[in-house]
Design a protein that fits this description.
Helix content: 25-40%
CATH architecture: 2-Layer Sandwich
CATH topology: Ribosomal Protein L30, Chain: A
CATH class: Alpha Beta
Number of domains: 1
Mean pLDDT: 93
Strand content: 25-35%
Order of helices and strands: EHEHE
Number of helices: 2
Strand order of the largest sheet: 2-1-3
Distance between the termini: 17 Å
Low-confidence stretches: none
């Protein structure tokens, strides 16, 4: 395992209006509350699972 912590920047590109409740809660859990909001998160298995669940609503960029 590498000693460097990997981070990604996630940006919400799709609206949560009309989505299933689980998807809305996942966006809030990632710290995204409205369109075009961004967060930097560490890549843990839990975070990657959340990102995968709502990948169609996000833009993901790896940070150096």
């Amino acid at each position: 395992m590498s000693d460097q912590i990997k981070r990604v920047k996630i940006t919400q590109t799709g609206s949560s209006i009309g989505r299933k409740p689980g998807q809305k809660e996942t966006l809030v859990g990632l710290g995204l509350r409205h369109m075009h909001s961004s967060r930097e998160v560490t890549t843990t298995p839990e975070t990657l699972g959340r990102i995968k669940k709502v990948a169609h609503l996000l833009k993901v960029e790896e940070l150096a």
